[in-house]
């Protein structure tokens, strides 16, 4: 090597070596936070899954059985005020109440029943009631002079204009005759009547073919009237 080359080699400046600096990517902190949150959710889900598996496999003997009962009511919205929980449940309650009242109470007034003498015959599937009323065939000629109303557990026979030809008209405060039972001994499917010369025959068709020792159920106001 020549002297000139040696001098040039000795005067060359040393090359700068760049230091290795850490590279920071944008959003790395957010990414770490998301990973932590995701890990938290995963661990929470695993805990719930383990709890549910424990309850399903061991039932009442599970260690976490107390957590098995979940609240099914409406969520609280943070407002302290009365609320209607369910319109449907309220309407159903009203319908059921009205239905039970309709079944338990007849639409007619049993207290106006003033026919106290009658006979009845139990024929197995049906019951016949004989109401003796002299001359009713001639006195009650209109279609609406005799009417019969009934429910599943009651009936009411009403006779109008019966006294219009008799001397008892002046003595009677009302021209209506009525035989009513608010609670029959058993349930009926239907009720009908036939008008004869001196009587009215009522026929009650039973729902069940059972013996009726009386027309009215025990405890009915008309039970003992014969």
What's the structural blueprint in terms of helices and strands?
Elements: H1 3-11, H2 28-58, H3 87-104, E1 119-122, E2 126-132, H4 136-139, E3 146-150, E4 155-159, E5 177-181, E6 188-195, E7 199-206
Antiparallel strand pairs: 1-2, 2-7, 3-4, 4-5, 6-7
Protein name: CS domain-containing protein
InterPro entries: Calcyclin-binding_UBL-bridge, HSP20-like_chaperone
Organism: Ditylum brightwellii
What is the CA-based Rg, rounded? 47 Å
Largest beta sheet: strand ordering: 1-2-7-6
Helix tally equals 4
Name the structural class: alpha+beta
- CATH topology call of the domain at 110-206: Immunoglobulin-like
Largest sheet: 4 strands, antiparallel
Order of helices and strands: HHHEEHEEEEE
Q: Percentage of helical residues?
A: 25-40%
- Overall average pLDDT: 70
Distance between the termini: 153 Å
CATH class membership of the domain at 110-206 = Mainly Beta
Strand content: 15-25%
Strand tally, please? 7
Q: Please mark out the parts with pLDDT under 50 across 5 or more consecutive residues, or reply none.
A: 85-90, 97-105
Any idea what the CATH architecture of the domain at 110-206 is? Sandwich
Region (Disordered): 1-52
InterPro entries: Calcyclin-binding_UBL-bridge, HSP20-like_chaperone
Organism: Ditylum brightwellii
Protein name: CS domain-containing protein
């Amino acid at each position: 090597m020549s002297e000139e080359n040696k001098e040039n080699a000795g005067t060359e400046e040393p090359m700068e070596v760049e230091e290795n600096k850490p590279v920071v990517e944008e959003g790395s902190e957010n990414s770490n936070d998301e990973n932590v949150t995701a890990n938290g959710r995963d661990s929470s889900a695993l805990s719930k899954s383990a709890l549910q598996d424990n309850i399903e496999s061991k039932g009442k003997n599970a260690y976490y059985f107390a957590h098995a009962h979940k609240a099914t009511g409406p969520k609280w919205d943070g407002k302290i005020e009365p609320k209607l929980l369910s319109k449907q449940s309220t309407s159903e309650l009203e319908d059921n109440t009205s239905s039970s009242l309709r079944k338990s109470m007849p639409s007619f007034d049993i207290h106006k029943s003033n026919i106290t003498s009658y006979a009845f015959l139990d024929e197995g599937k049906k019951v016949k009631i004989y109401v003796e009323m002299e001359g009713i065939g001639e006195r009650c000629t209109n279609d609406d002079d005799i009417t019969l109303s009934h429910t599943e557990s009651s009936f009411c026979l009403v006779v109008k204009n019966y006294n219009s030809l008799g001397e008892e008209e002046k003595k009677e405060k009302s021209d209506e005759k009525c035989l009513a039972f608010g609670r029959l001994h058993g349930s009926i499917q239907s009720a009908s009547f036939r008008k004869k010369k001196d009587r009215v025959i009522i026929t009650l068709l039973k729902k069940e073919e059972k013996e009726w020792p009386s027309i009215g159920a025990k405890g009915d106001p008309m039970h003992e009237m014969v």
